[in-house]
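Hey,

Quick one before I head out. I ran the complex with pyridoxal-5'-phosphate overnight. Inputs first:
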Amino acid sequence: MKLSTQAVQVGLNWDGRTGAVTVPVYQTATFKHPGLGQSTGYDYTRSGNPTRKVLEDGIAALDGGVSGFAYSSGMAAIANLLLLFRKGDHLIVTEDLYGGTYRLFEQIFSHYDLSFTYVDTSVLSEVEKAIRPETKGLFVESLTNPLLKAADVKALSALCAARDLLCIVDNTFLTPYLQRPLGLGADIAIYSATKYLAGHNDTVAGLVVVKDPALAEKVYFLQNSVGAVLGPQDSWLVIRGMKTLGVRLDRQQENAQKIAEWLQAHPKVRKVHYPGLPDHPGHQLLRETARGFGAMVSFEVVDPSLVERLLLKTELISFAESLGGVETLITFPEVQTHADILPEIRARLGINNVLLRLSVGIEDVDDLINDLAQAFEE
Ligand SMILES: *Cc1c(COP(=O)(O)O)cnc(C)c1O
């Protein structure tokens, strides 16, 4: 079965008793025991809830893993996974990382004696060079934010397997529809489901998928012990969003490709980062390992004064953080999403005062291009 079909099947006809086509929202904190020492399989919603379980099983199926876990946000998911590590452990991490993940690692987990080295994970030898005796894990964004560098997840997973490192892939930008990290050899896939999986800019959620049953048990223990679980209503919203993942992403990618090409030809744009462009460094790799190039486009304008104009003059396109929803959004990474990254690191990465990021939605692409065109004008 193709993934877009599989996504529609999540929770479908789950409730045989009433025949409800969609899964019910089990808005309950606790469950009555049928007898002493007996359980329906559900005891308390932090430990397990039927609506959340449908989502967790659904994402595990889409990603080809044994178990899925739903959290109250992408950050809660990442924080939970970091608890798999112990005092003194070292992790290698993608350098142009989501700003919130960088803040979590540097300003919180570093106080618990975990250490992190940030490298360009699109270059395998950089990762290899950073391995130390105490290195226990690799945390990689398969497609980075905001510069859209593509990591060779297959090669990185093989390196991790050879050196006994846990390979964690933040696959938020690609989703299982475009690339399945576990199939390429990774141990864990994580998603900010807030983005493409839920897809409507209306809910905050995180998902984790694990390949190995013993590891899944550890993650379940952490999820239940720490308790940052996704509520039943939000689980339902993510399930609903996931059903249209395929059609949304097909349209979003098609729009992104056209917008990237239009921007590339614009005299007030000096650089476009989109892996669908043949001269993008990740183009060939994604052609071989993914079903597409995603729908995030970053670009540099020729003059800093254009930044504010574009952010405020666009009408269909909203100036807002986040990404992956049906609505097209524009943001200014240097100030909005990557402010917690040290200025010298931002400068080295190319997150500068002329870089803008678009999360391309499902609108008619001509309307989006017209909106950008009028915003560029004096
Ligand atoms: C948004 C995002 C996160 C954090 O997820 P939240 O749902 O906002 O907590 C992590 N990684 C990436 C790549 C993201 O885009």
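The pocket of pyridoxal-5'-phosphate is lined by residues 73-75, 98, 100-101, 141, 145, 170, 172, 192, 194-195, 204, 206 (CB under 6 Å).

Talk tomorrow,
K.
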